[in-house]
Amino acid sequence: MATTPPTDTSTGDRRLGATFHRFWAAGTLTNLGDGMLATALPLIAATLTHDPLAVSGLMVARFLPWLLVAPFAGVLLDRVDRFRAMAVANLVAATAVGLLAVAILTGHASLWLLYATLFTVICCETVTDPASRLGVVRLVPPGLLDRANGRLEGGRLVAQDFVAAPVAGVLFAVAAVLPVAGVALSYALCAVLVATIVVILRRTPQKEATPDGGGQALARGVWTSLREGFGHVFGDPLLRRLMLNNAGIMIGGQMGAAVLVLYVQHTLGVPPALFGVFLASSAVGGLLGSLWAPRLVVRIGRRAVMMGGYVGMGVCFVLVGVLPNAYAAALAWGVSGLCMVVSNIAASLFFQTVIPDHLRGRASGAFRAIGWGTAPLGALAGGLLGRIDLALPFVVGGLVAVGTALVLRRTVAECARLCDEAVADPGHDA
Question: Measured between alpha carbons, how far is 218 from 155 in angstroms, rounded to an integer?
Fold first, then answer.
């Protein structure tokens, strides 16, 4: 979709502008709510049952929407205005979490209600997450996308990993309903902010009102549109190989993540009270990565940043499994977070600029559904390897990630080249 990004004459051409920062604030609020919900729901579940299988049902509710709903969310995002979809999805999520808060307050909370609430929220996330990543191209010029993506990722890390967890824990200690009410408020405020962006964009000259020309997209059936999205992903050799790269790294990463809590406590000797501190090392690395990524792309090139990030993640996973003490392992875990974020930011431009706009939602949904669909496979493999030795999932997973990136290095290079060309061409359909 060719649009003219809203400009802020008071900030200059090389600034991201007031509209983007309004969008950044909205995304940060959503991430704050996501982080609080991820902390509060397991705590609430633990008050309802001590059955590990029952509590693990939250993980099932967390993954199922990406497998079942994400492709259809992609169809939606190629048919309607993505910011409007984001606003409505956040409003639905706020309503669902608000109903859960009422149930907790009145003593009617249950595990099934927790499952249903989380499932609903993640269904909304299958809309809001890609909508935010794809919608940013309407707010900033192509040459500033790396900076904008870095700013968004930094906000996500601070809100979700640094602020949300401790805030939710403190509020839960006061009353179980408080973090849940806070989540509902975060989602509602995000919906309001995004709605104001929709109003601002109405006043901005645009060639198209919807990503696919509106009427033409609506005239096609949902299943036809869905097939087009999957067909584009599987029919494009480059996208197919990128999907394999994503799947391989996801599988490798989830092998270690599946047993991380056991490995850190039982092998590295980190007490449960400090487990969150160990996890925070990844968030620190990720935050640094969000600040450095745009500069690294300029100084050493997008290809080097992407390959360095993918290979670096795998090497760090291996180091976590072989380093002898908790401090060294935490450092490696932190560097893995940095590598993940810089590679994600450098690669984000592919779906934002290279994929045709009328297919971006569907292609992103299909790509993400397949990527997330591989995560449980890696977790299962990690659990089986962990029965042998808790360090083994990190070593094997790291080698899988490194091997995947090296085998598909030409694919990564081609992806980087196309992203750079799209950004360099001022007439590109962003």
Answer: 35
